[in-house]
Design goal:
The chain is built from 17 helices and eight strands. By secondary structure, it is of the alpha/beta class. Strand 6 and strand 7 form a beta hairpin.
Amino acid sequence: MVSASAESSGSRVKQIPGSYDLPAVEEILQGCEYFRGVANFFKRRVEKYKSTVFRVYLPPNNQLTVLLDGKSFPALFDLRMVEKKNVVLGNYKISPEYTGGHMNYGNLDPSEENHHRSKNWWLQLGSNSRGRYFPEFARVFDELSVAIEKYLASNEKPSFTDHIEELIFNFLCRSITSADPIAPGPASLGTEGPWYTKRWLGAMGGQITSYRALPEFLHGLKIHYVPMPFSLVSGYYDKLYNFMWANATSALDLAENQFRLNREEACVNLLISICGNAVTSMSIMFNYMVKYIADAGGQLQRDLAEDVRGAVGAHGGINCRALANMALVRSTVYEVLRLEPPAAWQYARAKEDFLVESHDGLYAVKKGEMLCGYQPFATRDPKIFDRADEFVPSRFIGEEGQKMLKHLLWSNGRETDETSADNKQCPAKDVVVLMAQLFLAHFFLR
């Protein structure tokens, strides 16, 4: 991504191909095509336009300039030329009922004072939780093991996804907020927290979700005309909110007293971050991680077990020093994040005219345009990564592997960048990597 310096290079500036001004019927047809498969939808347009930068209409009501390669994608992070206010889902806006009428902190731009306060609150929560990460993860992994062994003993097929969602939900609640979802009490969630979460978020994003059971033509109609009423899931939201309000008192006290945040708003954003961003995204990532390792075969599994057991033996258990010496485990986690980034989409709005550079040339972006990046394309860019579509667990090992981390973009920033109140990079970036490493470490010790 470049601006004025590129213009002075003498390179010819290209007009961005494509259009998002479509007749209503064509919008519906394009929506059907999009929900048949996002990857193929984009591949066809890359071939059509001979460009990874183009304009397109995406449902519902998203008129976008798409950046699909690893060279142009980082423009979405450059706050000199883009803003991040109210762009979490592009032009699509969620009904405020789903968040109790409160602001989602993810919709704040770093230039806003409330962004600084809320981001610093999250960073402080993470710092305060460091001493709980290792013991709480050991606890939830033991709970996972007991649950799966129970299913196996009864000859029932366990649902790995359900158990992983529960593991992530319980770990984050206990370690970050000191609240235990399954502990008895008037606001206890028992084991239903992830289930309530899926119902709440499923209705919230119903207009942008593909449902396999629906006939194809109904996708176009559904996304345009049938928003899901909050009343269908208000009971699930209330249970989640009441749990946080009653139990996450230390986190909410910190928000209110130290960072001058509205307590109710902070409670809603705990839900959004833990339930929405973390449980939903990370459960997908964990499922992919297990699938890739299983599909890779016995040799990788033996190598990972050796990596884990050697480090644990040398450092007296699963601790920071042991994890730091599990090079293959860490590289495997990074490779899964490259292939299957937890948050596939990134959006930003151009706050001035500028030039964006792809592998094919320079393109003129106009002030006010909504920019969109589909990350699985950017992080599988064959002009950046060798064997870009393959799972290469050792890709990020060694000096050359470390150099490739700057092209890992899953956290709304480069892996080599530091998250701060001045940017939009995920405040839990390091916690996500830590959790994935801990999962593999515990798994391969058994």
